[in-house]
Protein: Protein CBR-DEL-3
Organism: Caenorhabditis briggsae
Amino acid sequence: MWLRGIFGGVFFIFLLCSCTALFVLHSLYFIFRTASQTEKTETKTVHDDQLFIPALIICNRMPFSQDGLNNVNVNLRQDSALRYLLEWTNPSLREAADYTPPAADFMNQGQNTVLQYITQSTRNQTIQNMQYQCQSVINSCSYQGIQLSSFDCCRNLLSLIPSVNGLCWVWRDSTMWQNSTGINRQFSITFQMTRNSWFSTFVPTHPGVDVYLREDGSDVMRMATELENPIRLQDKRGVRLQMRKTKKADIRRTSCGYALGDARRSDVHAFKNNHTNYLMCNMMVAMRYCNCHPLMAELLHYDPSSFRDFLLRVSQTNVCSVDAYDNCARRYIDLTRVENWDEDIPKDLPGYEDAKRCRNDNQRSCLITSYPGTIEGYDLPEEYRTTQDYVSRLVLEYSTMRTTEILVSKDPNIYELLSFIGYNMALWFTVGHILWSMFWYATGLCCPKRTTNRIMPIVSRKRSVSSPEPIIVEHRPSQSEEAGNAGET
């Protein structure tokens, strides 16, 4: 009997240690997956009752008209000054694969001319005056067969925004929506600029117009660095986009919640509480360590009373030249672009801790809406191909009323990790309990308990007071009674 107890104790300790070790090893797999930053993508489609035509971010790659330049100073029409203006206002030009850097003397001459006639005190207004007017760019637009004139179409122009992709306009008509698909639901916009307004020896052919699609055009700060996937419109060509609406939520960041709806509410809350100033914060760091401010800092629209420190820093520093931007400020601005959000901040960057604090204190968009689809290019009608003006057309139509929702999350997330650990604990300790029960039952069969003769106490039956046993009384007759009985006999 004592051997059974010893073996049972040893087996119990062995079983407990084994189940604990297996539980830990099984759980470590999911813990290491979480620590290695693995991710998963979930995709689903939902039907929408109505879809709106997205906002158009129109970026003219030649934003300055000859008349606008003449109104400031005729010297700005020189090739060197015009080349410097274009690269100054559009930093993405130097990122093109076919970019050829000009001679240093050529750019220095252009810089001197530009800074001579575009001073800091009036720079913002001067650059706006040099640009095209809306009706000089947009010829017409139509929706569901209804033709709108240039004037009516330009009434939907919301604002002018600077961006890392150049000077752009925000165009949006909130009344344009559709509840079904088809060629009769198309939206088209035609651009036309007269040849005399842009032609020069430096620009013999118009470089085209880039159009970006956005769900909303209200957050200027985000649009400055979050423009992706341009639709480039070349001269005498049209582009038709059969698009579908796609929403992508990145919930790997805890501030974005755990679902697509949480990501949307998080972005709205950040915008209302002024927590979307990642670009402005990084420009403040650039001003501190580059001793100049990007041109974009002067052109952004913001409330001066809410950003007094930013306004003061801009007024106390000079604007960055094209070379100064490339050599210093570009590194800080590029950190705010969508493609660099998940990149580590270089530790050799001056002001590394300040740049890291900007990323932590300001929310990057949790939900990004895009409009991918099939792009078809075609030649414009003969009436447009015979003119020397720049003419192009963009046609948009939804190919489906279903919206694709993409959710990017950690794999596993915190809830799945806790669930896996709980399942592992239940699994292995349940197995241990089953093995322990089988062991104890088996030892009971092969080593039965020894029976012994024990003296058991006699348990007396209790009698109830309420029902006592009857008392039997023996009756003996007297002598007189016996004699009487004998006489009768």
In short: The longest strand covers residues 39-47. The two ends are 82 Å apart (CA to CA).
